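Encode chain A's predicted structure.
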Amino acid sequence: MKDTTDQKAKDSEGIKIAQINSRQGIAIAIISAVSGILLAIIGQGLFKPDPPLKENSQHWLKIINVEVDGFRDELNSVRVIAEVNGHAISYPTRALWAKIGPSMSQEVFPLAVGPKYGLRFELLATGAQTGYVARFVSQNVITYNDSQESINGVYELYIISDQALRGETPMARVKYAFLDRPN
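Encoded structure for chain A:
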């Protein structure tokens, strides 16, 4: 008889533990559901999706020509590095250097599609006689958005001296076009 009483007590205790565990599980499920609903309601105001891109938001960058002041004989060839949204584009693509002048070959580069375009340039210039390579830079970032129509621009650059000092006045310019059609 004692065994039966002990067995009933153990069974009763097991049922109580199971009931507590099932109640805890239901409480956790309710808390989780309410938390999820609250986070969804609160999160709607915090996370805004990027604005939709316009239907034809592909753009191109065209390098038109380069001017360098004061180094007519020493620096007669250039390499242009355009940085668009952190991605480097190098002109010319089929040669190491391009001769400076009004009849420089122009080149058009497709840009990755995005809602905005941050554009900046660097310039390396050299001369066949000297072998010296000058570096021209600027921290200026020009921003265009995806609805921007074609526009021509001039980007001014400053020489960096041998002592790593930036010049006071711009001594080089990159003439470019930001295009909404690849023409």
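The longest strand covers residues 116-126.
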